[in-house]
Design a protein that fits this description.
- By secondary structure, the chain is an alpha/beta fold.
- Helix content is about 35%, strand content about 25%.
- The radius of gyration is 42 Å and the shape is elongated.
């Protein structure tokens, strides 16, 4: 067995783990930490009899090859002392005590053994990658250490990380570091950004790299399997400088290809890899790396509730990690297919997955372990509050939680969902399918959803198409591995038929898994061209193709959609009948709302039966609460910026002018000011309510004029007194009437020609002689001559001089 750098640190590791609950071990890539530390712990005296060492590795292939390597070094086959287990594959025997798992397996293992009594030591490998399951595992295991498993030992392994947050989170922890000398790496960047297709850039880089050094293998980092296949085809066809083995490296690698990659061969290799080769796997003969700077990253899809892969730039840390693969055993070369400026613009480290992904499955699994309090202090890195809220809501909608809050317990349905190794939506789909007796067809739908095989608008068209190999494979795995209770009625498990009954069953299954994706065709559809508009039950809208399905139905489940700028385009859906929605009690509710009609300027009451925000049945009528309707009416009509706001009197007059002539309104308010001898500067909301008591429609004001409503300030007993003290007119000799003008904040006045006051010596007064009117005396042509409140003085002092001017200007009029 070859000596590796980590071997020198093993005695210190074994010593420290005896006195500490947790160790953080940093060791350079290729030092052997993944394959040497676990067996050293297994064969130490730290473990109790029959206790196991569990190693959690980010990727399936890395877990598998680590187990193979350790077993080989122990001179055994996998499945004896050393084994592995990940989704859909397991090699563990009755004597296996060193087990390599993918991170996602931990919570499922704990579902059967919540306190992890089988494990004496648990190792989290490649912690710096910060996958969601890494953070979940750390948070839960520390919870166990602090509560019911203080004897549990925890090791964190990584090539590089910020250890301070870890050491403060881990109980009784200690840090060890191993630095090994790296060989020199010659680094090359693109001189400028390139628009060339990736496969052509790879071909150029490969041709250049092959000239550098004979015999050494090339490792090419590509974002995903489609790029690997394309580059493999081009290189096999066009690169013929020497005999080469061009091999893919990814998580679904066939056993034959695995042997070619990891075993010495006679020919030089070009290994086309996803980011699986960044860490954990050691490729002995590689000293040339070609880095595309891209990776495929899972991102949460709101539409399907499932992870979807997107191509993104890597972080600086990943670029450094990739580059380091070229110089593990000798000096190496790294060709970066991006510019130095691009590299410097990338983030220094990868964002922890827990900050950007859906947490519903994680919450479901943690709840299944009996954890109720999942608030901030539980997490090593707290997820965003909105992510916790979204996950909680989704689990509640699926029937997995009894209440819509993070502290809620699982329902019996939730416990059954947690036992199925699928996402919560798909596990709910399969549970319902079991009850309906159509598990095989539901498995096909689940596989199509998870593999993104929804290419037609009608989801049921998948039953009429030949399925890709990957969809068939996932379908088979779901059927084989989903463990659900026996069907209640075996007779219902017959082969699926395209009958209305079977289609209805599938609709029910999909609705149970996607109750929040229900949409309704908009009644007034003004979309041009080939689209119609849909409204979603939880808000928002989308466009769907104008199709026989969408024209003949009103309700749908949207299963796939694409968002482009400000529009959402539906890609796949399932039609629903209105009665299908009645099975989702959580989403059904009755409500009565008051609505404002901008055309009629009135409030109406809308009562209806709804699915979320979608209308199933609706009726219009008179508001049952006149007081609430009136409040809305006042706020809308008077355009109040905040509820129950007071209005400046001039604002009040302006807004009320839609009910009453503005001059007449101000005239009445002026009369009220004079009558009460009190300035009116504001109108309170309470006064508005009194003025328009019981009013919630404009037509009501038209039936009873606004000015009469304002008179509520004057009691019926004082109406006669009001008319006498602040009259609308002044009468001369009971033969002629002159209108009295009242204005807010001004003295009352009247306008009349000078001749109309002949014979009148005293200024007319109102309010029983308390207030003299201001007289606007006009010339025969109606133009102002004089303003006075003392008519007697005017006759005596002003009129004699004015008379001369008037005689010359208006000679036809007598001027006594």
């Amino acid at each position: 067995m070859n000596t590796l750098p980590i071997d020198n640190l093993l005695p210190e590791i074994l010593k420290k783990i005896q006195h500490h609950q947790s160790l953080v071990i940093q060791a350079s890539p290729g030092s052997g930490k993944t394959t040497r530390i676990p067996p050293a712990l297994l064969h130490s005296k730290i473990l109790q009899e029959n206790q196991e060492v569990w190693v959690l590795v980010p990727r399936r292939l890395a877990a598998k090859f680590a187990a193979l390597r350790v077993a080989q070094e122990l001179g055994e086959e996998v499945g004896e002392q050393v084994g592995y287990h990940f989704r859909f594959e397991k090699r563990i025997g009755p004597k296996t005590r060193l087990k390599f798992f993918t991170e996602g397996m931990l919570l499922r293992l704990l579902a059967e053994d919540p306190l992890a009594f089988k494990a004496g030591i648990i190792i989290l490998d490649e912690f710096h990658e910060r996958h969601l399951h890494t953070d979940l595992a750390l948070s839960y295991l520390v919870h166990l250490q602090k509560t019911k498993r203080p004897d549990l030992k925890l090791l964190i392994l990584s090539a590089t990380l910020d250890e301070k947050p870890l050491l403060s989170f881990l109980p009784n922890s200690y840090s060890l570091r191993l630095e090994t000398a790296l060989y020199e790496t010659r680094l090359t960047y693109l001189s400028k950004t390139s628009d060339e297709p990736l496969d052509k850039l790879i071909k150029k880089a490969v041709l250049e790299a092959l000239k550098i050094e004979q015999g050494k293998d090339l490792l090419v980092f590509l974002p995903g399997m489609s790029e690997i296949r394309k580059c493999q085809e081009i290189l096999e066809r066009e690169v013929k400088s020497e005999p080469l083995d061009i091999l893919p490296l990814h998580g679904d690698l066939a056993k034959e290809t695995q042997a070619l990659i990891f075993e010495p061969g006679k020919r030089r290799k070009i290994i086309l890899s996803t980011n699986i080769a960044e860490s954990s796997l050691t490729l002995e003969n590689v000293n040339i790396v070609i880095d595309s700077g891209l990776r495929r990253e899972a991102s949460f899809s709101w539409w399907t509730g499932l992870a979807q892969l997107q191509t993104k730039n890597i972080s600086q840390a990943s670029a450094i990690q990739r580059c380091g693969r070229s110089s593990r055993t000798s000096a190496g070369y790294c060709f970066r297919l991006y510019t130095l400026g691009q590299f410097q613009a990338w983030p220094a480290y990868d964002t922890a997955e827990i900050e950007k992904t859906d947490l519903s499955q994680s919450i479901l699994e943690l709840k299944n372990l009996g954890l109720q309090n999942l608030h901030e202090h539980f997490w090593f890195k707290s997820p965003p509050a909105v992510a916790l809220q979204h996950a909680t809501e989704l689990l509640f909608y699926l029937g997995a939680l009894s209440e819509n809050n993070i502290s809620s317990a699982l329902t019996s349905t939730g416990r059954q969902m947690a036992r199925i190794p699928l996402s919560p939506r798909l596990s709910r789909l399969m549970l319902t399918a079991q009850e309906e007796g159509i598990t095989e067809k539901a498995a096909l739908i689940a596989a199509s959803l998870s593999e993104g095989f929804l290419t037609d608008l009608d989801i049921f068209s998948i039953f009429e198409r030949r399925l890709p190999e990957n969809v068939e494979k996932v379908k088979t795995r779901i059927i084989e591995n989903v463990k659900i209770k026996p069907e209640k009625n075996p007779g219902r498990g017959r082969a699926f038929q395209n009958t209305p009954q079977d289609i209805a069953k599938l609709r029910h299954c999909l609705l149970s898994a996607f109750p929040d994706h229900v949409a309704q065709k908009r009644k007034t559809n003004s979309e041009p061209g080939q689209n119609i508009a849909l409204n979603f039950c939880n808000g928002g809208s989308a466009l769907a193709p104008r199709h026989l399905l969408t024209q003949s139905h009103d309700f749908f489940i949207v299963l796939e959609a694409q968002e482009n700028r400000d529009r959402v385009q539906v890609k796949s859906l399932c039609v629903l009948e209105e009665e299908d929605l009645l099975s989702q009690e959580t989403w059904l509710h009755e409500k009565t709302i008051l609505t404002w009609d901008t055309k009629s300027l009135g409030v109406s009451q809308k009562s209806g039966f709804y699915y979320g925000d979608l209308i199933l049945n609706e009726q219009w009528g008179t508001p049952s609460s006149i007081q609430e309707a009136q409040k809305i009416f006042l706020e809308k009509v008077f355009q109040l910026s905040k509820p129950e706001q007071s209005l400046d009197i001039h604002q009040f007059i302006e807004k009320a002018s839609r009910f009453e002539d503005k001059i007449q309104l101000e005239n009445l308010l002026g009369r009220l000011e004079v009558f009460f001898d009190k300035k009116i500067s504001t109108i309170s909301f309470k006064e508005l309510e009194n003025i328009l008591e019981g009013v919630y429609q404009l037509k009501q004001v038209q039936d009873l004029p606004f000015s009469k409503r304002l008179m509520h300030w004057v009691s019926p007993q004082k109406q006669l007194e009001f008319d006498q003290k602040v009259p609308l007119y002044w009468e001369k000799d009971r033969k002629k009437k002159f209108k009295i003008h009242y204005r807010l904040g001004q003295a009352p006045y009247l306008e009349a020609r000078l001749q109309d006051f002949w014979g009148i010596q005293e200024t007319p007064k109102i309010k029983q002689g308390e207030i003299a009117l201001t007289l606007h005396l006009l010339a025969p042509n109606g133009r102002p001559l004089q303003v006075t409140q003392d008519l007697k003085s005017f006759w005596e002092k002003t009129y004699p001089d004015l008379k001369k001017q008037l005689s010359r200007r208006y000679p036809k009029h007598p001027w006594p």
